[in-house]
Every structure is written in structure tokens, then in C-alpha cells.
Design brief:
Pfam families: HTH_67. By secondary structure, this protein is mainly alpha-helical. It has one domain. It contains 16 helices and no strands. The relative contact order is 0.16.
Length: 284
């Protein structure tokens, strides 16, 4: 029986993830990777997969779920000829440092609130589980940075990947393939816009159109491109199942700890968003 208010863990995660994921959209990340000879989508694939080691395109396609394999294969394993996974992890941490300082300001980075948030988030990660969570588990092997703002970002990374790995289990159980998962998420108003889907996930407009047709055949998407009642219910059920699979870290932290971490994460996320952490046209 949960001791937390409904969806408390989800709300906390979403705020933590806002700051974690801002690094992927940061110009500071591209600047760190340019001297390594890694550019464009190769930066994302290298950054997020480096904890797994010198992995193949097939491994990343499986673990990341919604990218077209041919896009991944254009960059992996070639990026490992340009830089080792250890080089990539070092560059990623430098980019996280620069990005957080730019978005939040040095005072927030050095604040007591940041140190408190890092402690709470790290405590939550103590209850994360490794089985069937490859991306989380690989990141859990990495050392915790000493600086509080980087420890907070590291903990947010662990909690994001823990929930993400569990979400893929829910997607498979719901029978949503990569394209259908992306399109139904965008139709909910919470996923990428069509522009960003095409630019970052590698699927063509024709492949996306075929995915919409499959969703319509299942009664999940209407002729207007919006989710039907059944489609909205499926997306809600997916999030509830993901909550269930991701409950342990937040139950471990407890209601008071989750509430305080959510409060702190809200302030950091709001500051980052106000500072332009994400493109204005990102969401669909």
C-alpha cells in the first residue's frame, strides 16, 4: 500500500527530469563534443550510451526504443573511434556543470538548497532496482560527483533512466511499437512536435503516417489526429503502470522527502525553463 499521495513520484520525477534532460539541448554539450569529432545526433547517442561502454547500434536501438535503427547505425559504433566512453562521460559531466551554472546561476549551484536536493535525490536512488533496467543499471555503476549540483544531476539521471527503463516494459505490454509510442505521446500534448520527431528520431513522414494509420485502426487515434477516449485511457494507463514500476525510490524517500524534493526541484526547473533550457517548438 502506497504511503504517497497519488502521482507524487511522477510529479517529482518530471521536475527532476526537466533539469537532467536540459543538458541534451544545451549548446555547451555540443561545444564539449566538437573537439572530440562527434557532432549532430552522434552527441546524443554517445552521451546517453557511454555508461554502457563501447556498445553497438543494435544495443542502443533496443535500449532507447523509439529511434530508427538506421539513424543510430549512422553514428554507432563510429563515435567510439573518435572518443572512448570514458572521454564521453568526462565531456558530459563538464557540459552538465557549464549548463547548470548558465541556467541556474552560480548562487543556486552553490546554495544549501542544492546540497539538500542532491542528498534527497541520492537517497531516493538507494531503492532503484537493476533487473531489466539496462540504462539505469549502467549509470548506477558511475561514481557520484562530489559537487552538489553535479551530484543532483547524477541522481536525476539515475531516477530518469530508472523510470524510462520501466516505461519501455509498459509500452511493450501495451503493444505500442516505437512509432506508435512516439505518436500517441505527441497526441497527448506531452511529446515532441512533428518537427522534432523527424529531426531527432529518424522516422520519415511516410513512416509516421503509417504509424498514425495503425493507431486509428486500433481506435486510439481519431481522424483529426487527436487521441480518442480509448487512446487517452491507454496513455493514462501507461503512466499509471510506469508509476507502479517506478514506485520504489519515492516510497523509500517517504512522503515528506518527496514533497521537499519536489519543492526544491520545482524551483530549479522553473529557473531553467525561464532561462530558455528548451526550444520553444519542442512539444507537439
Amino acid at each position: 500500500m502506497s504511503t504517497l499521495p497519488p502521482r507524487a513520484g511522477r510529479r517529482c520525477h518530471n521536475l527532476l527530469n526537466t533539469l537532467h534532460s536540459s543538458v541534451y539541448f544545451s549548446p555547451d554539450l555540443a561545444a564539449e563534443f566538437e573537439p572530440l569529432g562527434i557532432k549532430d545526433q552522434g552527441v546524443y547517442f554517445a552521451t546517453r550510451s557511454a555508461a554502457l561502454g563501447r556498445v553497438s547500434a543494435g544495443t542502443v536501438t533496443a535500449a532507447f526504443y523509439n529511434f530508427k535503427h538506421e539513424l543510430v547505425a549512422r553514428h554507432l559504433p563510429r563515435v567510439w573511434d573518435a572518443a572512448t566512453p570514458e572521454d564521453v562521460l568526462d565531456a558530459r559531466l563538464r557540459a552538465a556543470d557549464t549548463t547548470l551554472r548558465r541556467l541556474l546561476g552560480d548562487d543556486a549551484v552553490a546554495s544549501a538548497e542544492m546540497a539538500e536536493a542532491a542528498g534527497l535525490a541520492l537517497r531516493a536512488t538507494e531503492a532503484c532496482g537493476r533487473p531489466a533496467r539496462p540504462v539505469y543499471s549502467a549509470h548506477a555503476d558511475l561514481p557520484v560527483p562530489e559537487a552538489p549540483h553535479l551530484a543532483y544531476w547524477h541522481a536525476a539521471t539515475l531516477l530518469r533512466e530508472h523510470r524510462g527503463d520501466g516505461h519501455l516494459t509498459a509500452l511493450l505490454a501495451a503493444g505500442l511499437g516505437p512509432v506508435e509510442a512516439l505518436l500517441s505521446h505527441s497526441a497527448s500534448g506531452r511529446g515532441f512536435s512533428l518537427k522534432w520527431l523527424i529531426a531527432t528520431r529518424g522516422w520519415s513522414e511516410e513512416e509516421l503516417a503509417a504509424g498514425r494509420e495503425r493507431l486509428r485502426e486500433r481506435g486510439l487515434l481519431g481522424a483529426d489526429g487527436a487521441l480518442t477516449e480509448e487512446g487517452a485511457r491507454l496513455r493514462a494507463d501507461l503512466e499509471e503502470e510506469t508509476d507502479r514500476l517506478d514506485a520504489a525510490p519515492y516510497e523509500h524517500l517517504g512522503a515528506a522527502g518527496v514533497a521537499r524534493l519536489t519543492e526544491l526541484a520545482t524551483a530549479f526547473a522553473t529557473t531553467a525553463l525561464t532561462a530558455g533550457a528548451y526550444p520553444a517548438d519542442l512539444l507537439g
